[in-house]
Each structure stands twice: as structure tokens, then as C-alpha cells.
Amino acid sequence: MKKRMMSFFILFSLLLPHASSATYTFPEKPPLPDRNRPDKAARRIFAVAPERWEAFKSELKTDFRNVEIRREYSEVFKGASIEGSSEDLALLSSRPYVEDLGPVAAYKAEAADYVAFVGGDRVRGLFDGENQRLTGKGIKVGVIDTGMDYRHPDLRKNYAGGYDLVDDDRDPMETMGDEDVATLHGTHVAGIIAANGKIRGIAPDASLYIYRALGPGGTGTSEQIIAAIDRAVKDKVDILNLSLGNDVNGPDWPTSLALNKAVEKGIVAVAAGGNSGPGKWTLGSPGTAEKAISVGASTPPIKAFTLRTSGMPEPVRLIPFQGAAQWKTIRSAGMVYAGFGREKEFPADSKGKLVIAQRGKIPFTEMALAAQKKGAAGILVHNNQKGSFSGNMKNITIPAASISKEDGLRLRKLLHERADISQTNEQDTLASFSSRGPVTGNWGIKPDVVAPGVEILSTIPGNQYKKLQGTSMASPLVAGAAALVKQAHPDWSPGEIKAALMNTAKPLMDRHAALYEPIGQGAGRIDVWKAVNTEVLAVPGSLVFSQFSSGQRRSVHKARLNLINHSGKVQRFSFIYPGRADGLTWRFPKTQYVQPRSSREVEIVLEGTPIHLADGTHQGWLKMNAGREEIDIPYLFMMNEPDYPRLMGFDLQPGDEPGTLQYELYLPGGADEIGIALYDPASYHFIGYLDWVKNAGKGRLKKVLSRKEINVPDGTYKALIFAEKGNSEDIIEAVITIDFHSQH
Which of 107, 244, 626, 740 has a Cα-to-Cα distance from 289 of 20 to 30 A? Predict the structure, then answer.
């Protein structure tokens, strides 16, 4: 019926222009429907009195021969879904022992809100070269994570294979069993990409290849991750997602190098930037991989909560803990401080108040249970280091949230004041936990883009669903978006797909209407509708102009940009000159006209006078008109050596040979000296050095120590690992155990 009506509409439209000069004669009208041959489009669901059920079925056979029972129900109620003419169904519904429950309605799986927010539902109206809707069909997406519950009803039909690099078999199932080791992360990530059931991911018809590289508790090694990347390349996946990372911000860490090689082999690699924001230099590997798409987290449309007191000019942003009760509006609440959140540290008058505690000594759940027991209105856990964080709790019946160290210390000075908790509507803000760049060494702008990563609903093991947050949730949304771009443009290279997502991203602004820095948001929040539809590209999607140094005269740095025209007509590319800045002169190419389905490389020159430039990171956007589009290209340059961390990624493990220990750490710019000083964990009395090195080169430092080289006895120590260079020193604190006896 619908097809016939559509055909008639098209025919009528074609004839309409001639109506004024000719008389149109309608064709002979069709005959009325025969009541003995009903239109079976009418369907309803009836409940029948159980004692009349058999009589009802008999009546259908004798008096309603053209009515059909489609499905019978016996558990939820006694009844059936029935198909027949509208007249027959109306007569049946008038029977006193029949209850008309309503029509058979159409249902569809709902795309998650965050999918619609980035344009993922809108692209369903577009078709690829094979006349298939853009749903990820035919695209192989690899997921390197904790495995996946491939029995989940929303995922099982998309599961296409994979490998377990932890147990070395072909069964990449999530770790099940004891909740201390059980995982759910990979199943959640996979659902964001390609769930296709009760909820739908952004690419619901993509094929999922699952590589379990993180085992019980969600931990793994770089060798397992690299092995997973290697296997994904062999399996010829199109897209590869890694929602994992470490604290090493270096472009030459092995996982980052391996990911770059995967991109060179034609794979679009997508990696989470990390959850250690909002400070600079907090992005970790493999999100530092130059050729991968590194992803930060932004907010979809959500209800956010803030705390206000008269003593703080700006509201405190609350980051709710997963697994705690929802926050509600609270007026004029008192505040108390409970130390590290141990029950003995709670003041006697905690009931009905907001408790402030410091992170660091006990699990978050234990803190919240103590606050719950004391009758607190809620608990706020402030960080023990600079910046914010996000976390999880289990079965907490009071609201709980994390706040930054800075906000926590300020609130602890204002305990005499009253606090208000209020709700606001929020979207397109940068998540406070999202790690920031740039990358040490090459000063690369990372993340490349951001995507919703707060309160993201997706699949978890056991046929269940849960909201989680983190760049781990933003990354698969970008991976799924890349799958849609790949389906629409199968001949585009990984670099072009990356540029399409960056060139069409929406730059985000903070609450003061100022643009977030490129090292926080990259090119902005993805819009997959625009990425799929763009016909002009600027590759790469961001530009780095290296480093100016004091003592230099006027110096020049250059960057190259490839202008690509995928359309069928000539496209015009021109740059908009940025505002004037002391000490800087930009030189852009003249207006470029790029022929259909071709490209042209151009050079952009930045000339600077160091004496007029402030030390540190300089960044902003270059604007370019490309056809009918305006592209914002993030740029960055450094003045003198920046304030990056001198030390990161310390790890101590038993050596491969008996009687040895090995440690490794990462020195982004080298060090004049490094040392591992050991202290008694109770008295902090200095015991001795595990090791020390002078004039260490930049990059990865790995050493193996024998028992003879270690001048301290077996035991557990408080370790201070330090690196000095010039006037700068960085320190990592750790608890380490030296135990040669157990190696024999």
C-alpha cells in the first residue's frame, strides 16, 4: 500500500506542470475491497478469559475464517496477537470475555543519545556505493581491550572473531568470576561501537574482532598489546580501537610505534588519550602515536551538579562516582572534613552534612560506606594530586562525587559556611578528567578530537547495561564514526579519514565562552554527518611549527599541508590571516584552485623573533575556506624548552634471569642524573640507593640489576625516584618490594 501511494505521488508531481493547459482524466477508480478478503494489515493484541480460551479459538474457526492468530501468549496473560480486517477485529473486541489490549505497534532499537548527538542517527539516511545504508556494514573493527561477552544479545551477531593474548587461545571472553578480577570494560567499549539490540552503537552493523590483551582486573603488558596490534594487522581489520593507556607521554614508546606501523598498513587506529587531566602533558601512550586518532572526552547533553558557597567565586564541578546514589538539589547544607575517609576520622556531627574527604588511604567504597553509616547527606572526595579524577563505588545509597585537589583544599577552609548543590544542563564541555597534551619530544597536538565520554550507556557482561565515563568511552565512539566514514569512502586513506573527522569537528568553548586550548580538545568534538559528507580535506588536521629558542635572531619554521578535492568540480582553498601578534609573521600560500579528484601540497611559514615571544606553549587555530566549508586547523609552537615532566613510567619487576631485578622509566628530555632512593616505610629513614645514573639520554631507560649490585636487604620500601636536569627536578613516589628469595 505504501509503495503504491509513493508511486502515485511521483506521477502526480510529474504531470502537475501541464495542468493549466490540459484536462487530466483520472483512471477508472479501483473496486472496493471484498470483505471476504480482508486487508490483513490490521493487527491487535487481545487478552481472553482463560476459561473461554478454547471456545474463543473455536469461534474464530467458524465465524471469523479470515482472521489469523499470529502468536499465542500463556504466561504474562492468556491471549494472542490477531490479524484480520478492521471490522472483524472490532467485532471480536466487543465480546464480553475479550479485552482489547491495543494494536501491534512497531518497535526499533534505540540509538543511544550520544550517538544522535554526534550525528550517528542522521547518517542512516545516506547510502554507500553498494546502496547500503551507512551502518558500518562490511567494516571490520578491531577492539584491543579486556575481551568481550560475545553472548550478550546486543553483540553476539556482530562478533566475528579475535584472539586472547592473555591465555593464548581463540576465546576472547571477558574475565568472569570473582568481582575483584572480573572485567566489563571491553564489552562496554564494543557496545558503543556496534551494539545492535536493545541499544544500538554508532556503527550497529560493523563486524567486531575482539583482542583480549588485558586480563584479570583489567591489566596487561605492552608485549600483549603489541601482539594484539600485530594480530589485528594480520586479520586485516579496517579500524582498531584501543581504550587503554599508561602514564608515558612519549612518541617513541613501543605501543605508540606499533600503532603507527598499523596505520602505515592501512588501518585507522583510534586510541583513548587518558583520564589524568586537566593538567598539561598528562596524555599517555598509545594515545601519543602520531598517526593514530587520539581522543579526549567531552560531555553529551547531561544533567550536571555544582556546589556553591559564598566564599568561592566559581562553582565547584562535581564528578559523580558510578555506583552511588544520584545527586539532588541540596540547600544550605553544612560541611565537615573527615580526613582520608576512615570511619574513625568522621566528626560526631556528620549527620545530614556534606562530608569532604581526601583520596589516598582507603578504597572509595569504604569511604562512602562510612559516610553512609554516619547519616551524611553526601560525600565529596578530593584528589591527592593536581587536577580531577573519576571513579567507581559499589552499592552506595548516598550521593558521592570527586572534586579536584584545589577545590577540596579551598572547601576545607570554608567549613564554617553553608553549601548549595544545584543542577544545571550541560553539553559540549571538556571533561575535567580528560588528559591534555601536547606530546613530549615532537610537541604534537593531542588529543586530535574529542567525543562524548561522560555518562555513556552501553553493554556489560551478563546481558546487562551500565553507564561509564572516561576517554575509554569517547574513543570507541570515534572508532565507530571512522567505520561509517570508511564505509562511505572505502578508498580514503587512514590519514584522510582522520582529517575528515578533524576538519569537520566543532571547536568547543568553556563556560566563559572562550575556546578550549587545542591541547585539550584537538580540532573539537566530532560530527560524523559532516565528516561523511565533506568533499574537501586539509591533511594533516593539525600543524606543529617546532620550537623557537632564546638567543636566536629572526627564525623560520615551516609546515606542509595537503589540500585534497574529492568532488567532481574545481574547489577553491584560501587562508584567513590570523590576528596580529608581537614577534610573529605568517606567510600563507595564495588562493589555490584544486582540480576535481586531485590534490595539491602547500607550505605555511611562521617567522618569529624570539625576543618578543614569551616562554612556553603557543597555540591557536588557522582558518581556511575550502569550497563552501570553513576548516579550523589547530597549530602549536614552543618558545624555549617547555615545562614537561622529566620523569614518567617507572616500573620494577623481577628480571628474566634468576637473581635479578629490572626497572624501566621514561625520560622525555634526558637527565643530568636520576636516582632511586629507598626509605623505611614507617620511619622514612633513608636506607640507600637501589640505583643511580648520571647523564642519562632521552627516551626509555631500562636496566637489569643483580643481587650483588643492590646494597639493601630484601624488604618493602618507600621509594623516591627522581630526575634532575638543569634547575628542574621531578619525583615519583612508589612502594616497592625487593624479594630475591622468592625467585629461587
Answer: 626
